[in-house]
From TrEMBL:
Family named by the database record: Belongs to the LysR transcriptional regulatory family.
PROSITE patterns registered for this protein in UniProt: HTH_LYSR
GO molecular function: DNA binding; DNA-binding transcription factor activity
Family annotation (CDD domains): PBP2_LTTR_like_3 (cd08436)
Name this protein carries in UniProt: DNA-binding transcriptional LysR family regulator
Gene Ontology CC annotation, any one: protein-DNA complex
Keywords from the named record: DNA-binding, Transcription, Transcription regulation
Source taxonomy: Bacteria, Bacillati, Actinomycetota, Actinomycetes, Pseudonocardiales
The keyword Lyase is annotated on this UniProt entry: no
HTH lysR-type domain: residues covered: 1-58
Length: 290
């Protein structure tokens, strides 16, 4: 049994396609199929039921996957640890980030990190803070940048507070409030809002502030993308509450301080359970920059 055979099995299991698995592994399909058949012969079981149009895991294949995945992870970690002992960082780094990150210049940090550690493969995913924190706890991502209501802290991992800020009101340039130096939540309560989805941390910040002020509001548009929220505001369809750092200087937008507006805190979160050398090196890079 060879590690490469295990990689091929996991690729087929993830894609349910020998063709896509071969593309993922950068190998011709005939070679990948031959190696999986050889492994099945060695094990004495079929891992996949397959026809020309369909691929499924067999019961034996389903039972085989957890051990195969653990074996590959252990082998990869052993290689990373050996390289780290010589001062060379290898492996994979997975980063999660909210779409409204302002406390860190993430592209710049990644450019510096990749320059120092060219043998580390970096991937990233964007999501809401609750999902990203859960992914850190589950070991699916190494580090995450989160934005949470001022009264909430991430749980289940190590955290570093990066910044604390009050959101600003973003209104169309021709809006009746656009020339004000500052506003209160009551000035905005009757406006249609564009905001993040219900119960997401980005939305909860504003919902909590309106509730604390004993005010109600109408969220007419929901979006996960801050750029879409800004476009809705720019087209005169809504107003929004957003971090100042994500509001660009555009002729059709005006941003205003909100005296009693919501606050949020940005965090860096990671797991302290056996962090990889790549994760440790990235955290060290951020410690220098923040």
């Amino acid at each position: 049994m060879e590690l490469q055979q295990l990689r091929y099995v996991l690729a087929v299991a993830d894609t349910m396609s020998f063709t896509r698995a071969a593309q993922r592994c950068f190998v011709v399909q005939s070679s990948l199929s031959h190696q999986i058949k050889a492994l099945e012969s060695e094990l004495g079981v079929r891992l996949f039921a397959r026809t020309s149009r369909r691929v499924e895991l067999t019961e034996a294949g389903t039972a085989f996957l957890p051990g195969a995945r653990a074996a590959l992870e252990s082998a990869d970690r052993a290689a990373q640890d050996a390289a780290a002992a010589t001062g060379e960082v290898r492996g994979q780094l997975t980063i999660g980030t909210i779409p409204t990150l302002t406390a860190v210049d993430l592209p710049g940090a990644l450019r510096r990190f990749c320059g120092r550690h060219p043998h580390v493969g970096v991937t990233s995913r964007t999501g809401n803070s609750d999902d990203l924190a859960a992914a850190v706890r589950a070991g699916e991502i190494d580090v995450a940048f989160l934005g949470l209501p001022d009264t909430t802290e991430p749980r289940g991992g190590r955290i570093r507070r990066l910044a604390r800020e009050r959101l600003v009101a973003v209104v169309p340039h021709a809006h009746r409030l656009a020339d004000r130096r500052r506003v209160h939540l009551r000035d905005l309560a009757d406006e249609p809002f564009a905001d993040f989805p219900t119960r997401s941390p980005g939305r909860t910040q504003s919902d909590n502030a309106f509730a604390a002020a004993a005010l109600s509001r109408r969220v007419a548009f929901e979006a996960m993308d801050a750029a879409l929220i800004l476009d809705l505001v720019g087209n005169g369809l809504a107003v929004a509450l957003l971090p100042a750092g994500v509001v660009p200087e555009r002729a059709e937008l005006s941003s205003l301080p909100v005296v009693d507006g919501p606050r949020r805190t940005e965090y860096l979160m990671w797991s302290d359970f056996n962090p990889t050398p790549a994760a440790t090196a990235f955290l060290a890079e951020l410690a220098v920059q923040t």
